[in-house]
From TrEMBL:
Transmembrane segments: none annotated. One of its GO terms (molecular function) is 5-formyltetrahydrofolate cyclo-ligase activity. It is an enzyme of class 6 (ligase). Keywords: ATP-binding, Ligase, Nucleotide-binding. One of its GO terms (biological process) is folic acid-containing compound biosynthetic process. Belongs to the 5-formyltetrahydrofolate cyclo-ligase family. This is 5-formyltetrahydrofolate cyclo-ligase. Its EC number is 6.3.3.2. The keyword ATP-binding applies.
Length: 203
């Protein structure tokens, strides 16, 4: 990972405005390439699957993809065949809780699909969380759609999650620090262009 030695400490409102513009531009790029995303998605899925087998992750947090997010449904199907225990977000208010991935799925707020049946308990410890991003900055913190749901979830649950990987179809990275301290941090970011990781992680 390239080291960015200079940190930019900006007034909060200026950082917020920079973050909003960055998010808007990154989403536009994702919308532009979504019709040509199969090879990008396949590349990311292959790396993820190798890593999951390497660390023998049994309890995995994933997501049901929106159209501009990496389509990990082939990975989900394979992991179910492998008998790994999968969890996905189930929205509640301004955050979400994890429920076991199971069919059927129903479409909820923001066009997000979730398991229909949600009254279930889950194992507390998660070996690996796979999280979609719009972009990131020098800190490897997440820039998402701006709803704050992942931030609120991880604030309460990060102690129970051993590893976190961000994925995206393109690498949108700011050379300035535009995220906040409460934004979710990654151990690794996988994109077709580059893999960014913290020192303790190797693929």
């Amino acid at each position: 990972m390239e080291i960015i030695s200079k940190w930019y400490f900006k007034p909060k409102i200026e950082r917020w405005m920079n973050k909003q513009k960055f998010r808007k531009d990154a989403i536009a790029k994702l919308k532009h390439i979504k019709m040509h995303s199969y090879k990008r998605d396949r590349y990311i899925i292959d790396i993820l699957y190798r890593y999951i087998k390497k660390i023998d992750a049994r309890y995995i947090m994933l997501y049901v993809p929106l159209d501009i997010e990496v389509d990990i449904m082939p990975l989900i199907r394979q992991l179910r065949i492998d008998k790994r225990v999968l969890f996905v977000p189930f929205m509640e208010g301004e955050s979400f809780r994890l429920v076991k991935y199971r069919l059927p799925l129903v479409t909820k707020q923001f066009g997000i699909k979730e398991p229909k049946y949600s009254k279930q308990k889950r194992r507390r410890s998660i070996d690996l969380s796979i999280v979609p991003i719009v972009g990131t900055d020098a800190t490897l913190r997440r820039i998402g759609f701006g709803k704050g749901m992942y931030d609120r979830f991880f604030e309460n649950e990060k102690k129970n999650i051993k590893n976190t990987i961000f994925i995206s179809r393109i690498l949108s990275i700011s050379n300035q620090v535009i995220t906040d301290h409460y934004d979710v941090e990654a151990d690794m970011i996988i994109t077709p262009e580059k893999i960014l990781m913290r020192n303790r992680h190797k693929i």
